[in-house]
Each structure stands twice: as C-alpha cells, then as structure tokens.
Amino acid sequence: MDKTRKLVIVGDSAFAEIAREYFDADTGYEVVAFAVETPFLKRETLHGLPVLPFETLEERLDPARHDVFVACTYTQLNRLRQRLAADAKARGYKLASYVSPRAFVWKNVELGEHCFVFEDNTVQPFVTLGSNLVLWSGNHIGHHSVIKDHVLFTSHVVLSGHCVVESFCFLGVNATVRDKVHLAEGTLVAMSASVTRNTEAWGVYEGVPAQKRKVSSKDLNF
Questions:
Q1: Residue 88 in contact with residue 10, Cβ under 8 Å?
Q2: Which domain holds residue 173?
Q3: Cα-atom radius of gyration of the chain, to the nearest Å?
C-alpha cells in the first residue's frame, strides 16, 4: 500500500503501539513519531521512532504535512482523549481515523472524525457514530442506534437497536444494552452488566440486571 500521508501517534502506551501496527498495515499512513506530554516523557524512542514532546510538536512536525491520532483509552473517562485531540486540532493538525477492513460497517453508517474501529465489529444499518470514539474488537452495534462523541466500547459489547449512547460513556467487556435504552452522559457500564432501562448521567451500573452504584463515574480513578 502506498504511503501518502505521515502520522503522529499521541501516546506511548500499549494502545499507541497497537495503533501504529494497524495504521502501518492497513492504511496509507506512514507513522513517523510518537508524542507525549512533557511530564510523562520517559523515553526518547519507541519501536525505532522518536517520542517527542506533545506541547511543541508543531516545531518539529509541520501540521500541513502530518496528521495526528490520539491513542488514549478511557483515562479520565475519555476526557483526556478529548482534550488532547482538541488541542492537536486547534494547532492545525488533521485528526486521523482507522476502520479495520475486517470490521463490518454498513454502507449508510455515519462516522465522525478521529475514530478507531477494530476488527470484528458489526455496525448495522442506520447507525450514527460520533467523533473521538474507540470500538475495540468484537462489538455488535444494533441498527438505528446513535453513539455520540468521546465514547469507548471495550470488547464483545452488545448494543441493541434504537439505542442512544451519550458522550463520555464507557462500556466494559461483555456488557449488554437492551433495545431503545438511553445511556446518559458519562455512564459507566461495568463488565458483564446487562442494562435494561435508561441510565442517569455519570452513573456506574453493575450486575444483571444492572443497578446504579452510589458513586459517580467522575470520581473513579481511571
């Protein structure tokens, strides 16, 4: 595959390493560097590529010739990824997306910017996906559902049809959401939980059927 565009990955975590593998293998991007905020800059290279200070990135890599992907997962319930992506965009960088060729995404799905869709996701017709999303491998996104911005699905999540997932939600491994359910902003659905009714903003839900805990998802130490 011809490499027609250069890419900087923000982060040096396991997700950053994985993102580099996928972008290199499946896209026209050439990953040329990683970038990390200065307080977290602990090494000079990763997999043979430079790790640069994020705050001064444009002094080294021209935004007109480089795009950015922010490889953060659920830190601060997705608010870190939001902040770094907005910062990069404000400094002139275009935000990259990746959709695995091994995912099933129906032709009329609407997709925002700066998304990462892993292999084996099924995204059915008439779904709307917002910006700054991560869908890890093996999820089912039911027809006519809407997932808004800054959301992370881990793996093997089932979102039934006609659901709405508001911004900053997190869904754990093997979580299930019944059809026509509305997940309010900042909802955290724990691993293997089964959500059968609408949730409250920044609530934490566990169990089968899922029950709300007496803690805010904003207060969890992600």
A1: yes
A2: 99-219
A3: 18
